[in-house]
Amino acid sequence: MLEVRNLHAGYGQTRVLAGIELDVQEGETVVVIGPNGHGKTTLLRTISGLLTPTAGEIRFDGRRIDGARAESVAAQGLVHVPQGDLPFGDMTVEENLLLGAFPSGSWGARAERIGRVYGLFPMLGERRGQRAHTLSGGERRMLALGRGLMREARLLMLDEPSLGLAPVVVNEMYRHIEQIVASGITLLLVEENFSHVQAFDARVLLLESGRIVREGSVSDLLADEIVMATYLGT
Amino acid sequence: MTGIADAPQSMADAALLEVDELSKHFGGLAAVDELSFRVAEGETFGIAGPNGAGKTTLFDTISGHARATNGRILFGGQEIQDRSTHAICHLGVARTFQIPAVLPEHTVLGNVIVGAYFGHRPRAVPGLRFDEASAERARAAASFAGLGGKLDVVAGPLPLFDKKRLMIASAMASEPRLLMLDEPVGGLNHREIDEILELVRKVRSAGVTVVLIEHVMRALMSISDRVMVMNHGRLLFEGTPEDVQGHEEVIRVYLGTATEQPPSETAADDGEGRTEPHGA
Q: How large is the ipTM?
């Protein structure tokens, strides 16, 4: 479904990705782990068209998408929920969510989808009429995630969805992500909090210094002492 | 807990930070709602609670970034709720932020020296250049935070782990008595979390009182002497890290039922083997 070949990207003089090779099959869950500053977020940004690669190829369903604009990549069903504080502050919670369904084929299903987002994050439902800038940091993260879930995705890329969220919310969100995976949507996930990833039948990639340096199932990585000590906790 | 006494406290139970019936309203929303608690000098005090419980707003009112609607905040016995951010900083309160706040165009040393020069004491008429004493304090604080080898690196492109340490270095350069950390380990991996916890222990050993907000329970429970859980701007629980994990209401509104892995023993920290980014 997604093929990445010899991908290079960076910011100005700073090279971040140094020859990424990555294949994601339809229906698969792939988790990318690795130290901060080694390119996990840059990889997702380059795939979704937020960043133009300096070399290499990216194909989605066999079609080249490297160099394509982010909105056309998203319109093909490759949805990226980035890290960070993204909502439009002067718009309400609900307006921000509706933007997630606009303007692609997801608009007709917006009422049903917004109901699902409020089911997942009840706090957003309580605050649907509030302007986004009045939300707390964690609530803004929920809003950014909820907005990403408003769109019909075939491949969903989530960048550290648990960041800054209360444990009970993280549990609830991962239950929802499990449902998304069970419904057949392909998932590419960046996540430091490995305890939540263990529930998935996932392939795990270790990204260091801009390259994929190790790859295996969750149990393979759990058996790897170096990976355990560095990333997962012994 | 005893009530808030009007008489001066004896030295034995003198609170460094005393929050007394504090409220902060945003329109009709009471983000902080008649909250009272005290933190003793030398203590490490952890704050947890659901998203939107008012944790960061509480930090903002203490550091002067937001004005309290009602109530008092005493630091070292002085009321600070109406003072400006820099005046509060000069009294000895320093903080970090959830989303890294660094000067992106400046180097690591350039960032820390701002804390060392402007955070340390009033500079009504700033000099044309930073003085050598401030530069020395800045270098010491950067080394303290493990950034001694990156003094000349521009801060903007630094990874999250370094930015988090840089905020701590800048805060420590102001020589605070109270350091407030807003999610110091969020987004970091296991190894990086252990390094930040080690740094916080060093801060504590240096005699600085620490108040921290954190959702990573492994970190909060292992570092805090006492924990407060907030909900809807109010105090839901206050007690030891051991007691909080069995508190039914805290489990219901905050921790959830999925059990976390027990806090692991910190792996032997050889300080080696950390791969640094290449190709910059």
A: 0.71
- In angstroms, what CA-CA distances link B225 with B35, B231, B242? 20, 20, 10
Which CATH number does the domain housing residue A162 bear?
A: 3.40.50.300
User: Which residues of chain A make contact with B253, given a CB cutoff of 8 A?
Assistant: 168
C-alpha to C-alpha distance for A6 and A17, rounded to whole angstroms: 9
Give the residue from B77, B90, B78 showing the smallest Cα distance to B123. Answer: B90
Q: Which residue has the higher pLDDT, A100 or B257?
A: A100
Cα distances (Å, whole numbers) of residue B154 to A113, B102, B158, B160, B280: 43, 10, 7, 13, 11
Q: Looking at residues B132-158, what average pLDDT do you find?
A: 94
Q: Do A147 and A208 lie in a common domain?
A: no
Secondary structure (DSSP) of B65-130: SS--SEEEEEETTEE-TTS-HHHHHHHTEEE--SS----TTSBHHHHHHHHHHHTTS--SS--SS-
**pLDDT 10s digits, B27-72:** 888 999 999 999 999 999 999 999 999 999 999 999 999 999 999 9
Whole-number Å distance between alpha carbons of B144 and A14: 27
- Could you tell me if residue A178 is inside a domain? no
Q: Is B12 on the interface with A (CB under 8 A)?
A: no
**Residues A171, B253: C-beta atoms closer than 8 Å:** no
Residues A192 and A210 in one domain: yes
Instruction: From B95, B109, B1, select the one nearest B47 (Cα to Cα).
Output: B95
Residues of chain A with C-beta less than 8 angstroms from the C-beta of B248: none
- Give me the number of domains chain A comprises: 2
Q: Which domain holds residue A41?
A: 1-77+154-173+186-234
Ramachandran region, residue A227 (left: φ > 0; alpha: ψ -120 to 50; beta: rest): alpha
What is the tens place of the pLDDT at every residue in A68-79? 999 899 989 999
A169 and A226 in a single domain? The answer is yes
A161 in the same domain as A45:
yes
Q: How many CB atoms lie within 10 A of CB B246?
A: 9
A233 assigned to some structural domain = yes
Based on the fold, state whether residues A158 and A143 are members of the same structural domain. no
Q: Which residues contact B149 (CB under 8 A, 6 or more apart)?
A: none
B278: which chain A residues are within 8 Å (Cβ-Cβ)? 209-210
Considering only CB atoms, A171 lies closest to which of B157, B160, B256, namely B256
pLDDT of residue B275: 37
Task: Give the whole-angstrom CA distance, residue B230 versus residue B32.
Answer: 9
Contact indicator for B229, B49 with CB cutoff of 8 Å: yes
Cis peptide before A161 (omega within 30 of 0): no
